[in-house]
Amino acid sequence: MKKLSFEDSLSIVIPVYNEAATIENVLLSCISLRPKEVIVVANGCTDETVDIVKKFPAPIKLITVEKQLGNDVGRAVGAKEATGEVLLFLDADFVISKDELLLFLQPIMNGEADVVLNDFTKLFYEKKRPHSITVWRQIVNTIIGKSNLGIDSILSVPHAFTKKAVNSIGWENLAHPILSHILLVSNPALVIHRYPIEVISKNRFRPSEHQVNFDHLSKSEKRMIGDHLYGLAHILQEPRGGFSDGGRNRATIEEIKQTNFSPKITTGWKTIDKTLIYGGKTLSVIIPAQNEAKTIQSVIQQARKIEPLEIIVVVNGSSDHTAEVAKAYGATTIEINERLGNDVGRSIGAKYAKGDILLFIDGDFLIPANDLFPFAKAIANGVDLSLNDLNHYLDLRFPLNIVTALKYAVNLAHDSKGLGVSSMIAVPHGLSRKALNIIGWDSLVSPVVAQSKVLLENNLIAKTVHRVEVDKLNKIRPEEHFAKRGFAPAVERIIGDHVEGLYYLLSKTSKRGLFQNDHRYFGCLTPKKDILR
After folding, report:
1. Least confident interval from 179-188, 327-336, 384-393
2. How much of the chain exceeds pLDDT 70, in percent?
3. Is this structure's pTM higher than 0.70?
4. Residue 59 to residue 207: CA distance in whole angstroms
5. DSSP string, 68-114
6. Closest CA to 503 of 244, 249, 235, 254
7. Cα–Cα dist 18/24, whole Å
8. Which H or E run contains 14?
9. Residue 196, preceding bond cis, omega within 30 degrees?
10. Taking the alpha carbons of 224, 229, 233, 236 in that order, is the dihedral positive or negative?
11. Is the peptide bond before 59 cis (omega within 30 degrees of 0)?
């Protein structure tokens, strides 16, 4: 690639809405670069912005649109009119110095890159709870196979593209920032993100747009999460996005549904029919187990203390005495010779459970009864999905582990910010009979899809109820939890589970999920030009 000159090749695009206080200094900084052109797209302005811009001679070019376009549409309008070989996109509400822009643009002007992004590595590793959109940036880059980008994204200025790169995706797609980000960074085009420019503190804070709290999404959060979902909706060709299912035996679920297969069931002790502690409701405890003879006895003994109607152990692919031990301690066993894989046993256990309350735990580690009871009691008190409260992980590791980020992103996408990282991926969790009847026992084979189904139902209540440190209890399986390169098999499976949950959400709502209104106006992608000089 050839080295380019600013005067012959650089087009700067600046969308503007009521920026009279800052636009003059922004333009002065741009002019100091001696670019070929600076295209200002003034949309819906009601202050003196347009008058200020009109005072500037070439290379300033002004496009005015009477209607407010909303975020990003002005960038697409400006890109369409740009004539330079390199397009630099800036905002009008704060100034970036000439020296910073020169360093930022160096790779693309020297012919080393087609896309240059602001480097947010420092923010990514900052030791504080991440913003919801930081999390969504991380997971989209991961899903598209660009985890090396961290949280870098064209959501943030400055960013610069060659005209060739813009033409390859279509200038109009720049009105959809995450879709254009995905298309640009997924192309063979070289992406560079090595120079950071601090812009977060400079952004104008608009309370009506940006005010956030832990439980509710702001207007801007909803728009930007919708943007990320819109991008994913256009590139996900199949439910799991190419990520492994981890060897789940879903065929067995289909065989049971079609009555072509009946597992071996041995009924255990029926200890308690109705109990006052659950207000007359009954409890089924469901435990999938594979070669858990060493732990299943103690797991059952703790579960029995919370007065269940039944304890169901789904023994699958075992070559030890798990089934015999479970029977000896009064559990109902469902025996299947083949290994079922993650979550399939829970689904089958739910199919045959009789209780009004279903509590799901694992067979490979002990959870004390006092830590199990809150999940069952919450369901008895009217909650439909009771989840393990693991929200301390939002403040524990920096940057967020991708699994933690995905759990949070899914809840954000369902407008359930208050759930944090609580997920049906983690045990213990409880489910009401009402919820099971609505979502279907077979949906539990894919836990994030099951969670999506619950969260999309207006008459079902999901709640975090109690904290159990299951990560410290989980058995380490080297073949699942470690990898020499790429993601460990367990992590790849969990990423796929979350992609599948998001795919389900998109299939049942819209390309923007629950956030259909992006407050953008697309009718002016071919604008009426008041002035273009």
Report:
1. 179-188
2. 93
3. yes
4. 35
5. ---TTHHHHHHHHH--SSEEEE--SSS---HHHHHHHHHHHHTTS-S
6. 235
7. 12
8. strand 10-16
9. no
10. positive
11. yes
Q: How far apart are the first and last CA of the chain?
A: 30
C-alpha neighbours within 13 Å on the C-beta side of residue 45: 25
Residue linked to tokens 């087609």: 114
What are the start-end ranges of the E strands in 467-526?
Answer: none
- Residue partners of 148: CB distance under 8 A and separation at least 6: 141
Nearest to 390 by CA among 377, 400, 380: 400
Collect all residues with Cβ–Cβ distance below 8 Å to 163 and sequence separation of at least 6.
Answer: 82, 84, 85, 86, 87
The first and second tokens of residue 453, run together, are 């189904």
What are the residues whose beta carbons fall under 8 Å from the beta carbon of 134, sequence distance 6 or more? 123, 124, 151
Cα–Cα distance measured from residue 203 to residue 381, given in angstroms and rounded to the nearest whole number: 45
Q: Round to whole Å and give the CA distance between 377 and 370.
A: 11
Amino acid at the residue 328: A
Burial of 160 (0-12, 13-18, 19+ CB in 10 A): buried
Q: Strand, coil or helix: what is 386?
A: strand
Torsion over CA: 362, 365, 367, 368 (sign): positive
Kindly state the helix (H) or strand (E) to which residue 303 belongs, with its residue range: helix 296-304
Identify whether 177 is preceded by a cis peptide bond (ω within 30 of 0): no
Collect all residues with Cβ–Cβ distance below 8 Å to 27 and sequence separation of at least 6. 14, 38, 40, 53, 56, 60
Q: Which of 167-171, 281-285, 483-487, 518-522 has the lowest mean pLDDT?
A: 483-487
Q: Are 74 and 12 in contact (CB under 8 A)?
A: no
Distances (CA, A) of 37 to 6, 95, 122, 227, 524: 9, 17, 32, 29, 21
